[in-house]
Amino acid sequence: MCRNPRKRRKPMTLVSSNQKTTFTHSVVKRVRSSACCGRLLLDLHAILALPAPGSDQPSAMSRTFPLSLEPLDAATQAEIEKRFLGCRFGLVRVKETGFLMPAPYAKYAEKYYNFKFLEDDVVVMTHPKCGTTWMQEIVWTMRSGLDFDTPLELGVRSPFLEFDSLENPELEPLAEWAEEFRARNPGKDPKEEGLYLFLADSSKSPRTIKTHLPFSLLNPSLPDTSKVVYVARNPKDASVSYFHHQRLVMVSEFLGEFPEFFDYFTKDLVTQGPFWKHVEEGWEKRDHPNVLFIFYEDMKEDIMREMRRLNAFLGTGYTDDQLLKVAEHTKFSNMKSRSTTNPTEAALKVGRFKAGEGEFVRKGVTGDWTAYFTPELEEKFENWVEKWKGVAKEIPFKYKINKKA
Ligand code: A3P
User: N or C: which end of the chain has fewer CB within 10 A?
Assistant: First the structure.
């Protein structure tokens, strides 16, 4: 890994199985721009820092992205495209670690790797479907001085660092955001630079930033620079939740049932995995003073206990009465009913979610997996755990909980 910024910069590489070529954004350029995305209108001035810091990432002192990206082989890509209709723009894998991302990730990988975290940032890091939204809402509320009435969408209050990589690349960026971007970055193209990256970069401090990127794809200085709350969830419930999510979101549009999804999941063919590698990287850092490793199941079991841990970690100094209010505000039924945390209706309207596939804030329980795991899937699960046994057997996941009365 090149940690010396003075070292000569190598071009980022996109590696195919039989050749290594300089990365040219070719995977990404295949895509045409067309439709309009149309999200909620937002007053950006309420959330962006002023004066404009500009989007100057990566800077001259930035590090070269030290890993290689390779497109999936053509046969696997073709198979995936038939079952995940939204994955038609290609997928890239980080060769050294196996992380699988939509092809547009290649365009931004170095920017993410060089993203400048600030001392007062808190990063909520998770593998998808492990309780990110819940934790974001808790952390943001605690850091906002207990603002229970904000009308702003969570995704705006707590920006999603790599969302540019996960978007349908055919969509035009939201006009208002693009306009603001151009005003602050004359001559630059928001689609090339990343509009969500701009939002994360330009948001007012203190920032609560969401990411599904694992530590290895982010600035190596991260846990030394800013606090990270890593949330992990048992892989049976996480995979069931991810299955529903992948059917719901049009950027994936998975067509199959759970057994087929679990097959892709355990073969590391679902984006933003492999699950165990992601959790392993968080687990390895759990004793770092700037990292708080939290289990979703522990939050379900006793939210006040975990809230007190957070309170100490964030240094927010709330009383138990105040924490109880945060717990109430962020409990499942309340988050499900608020459009600022459950964007299902808005996303359905603009065609980002598929009708009939449930809601983004879905069920919120531990043990839902029992309705999905047949003896055959249990066997597949055991074999998968065996393959990852180093980490899989070390992390004390709970698959059932004794909920505090
Ligand atoms: P289910 O699909 O099992 O219901 P993420 O935010 O990382 O995408 O995680 C989504 C999971 O967290 C979903 O799980 C969702 O319902 C659950 N969730 C969201 N808000 C929650 C809350 N306040 N309490 C408990 N679970 C919540």
Answer: C
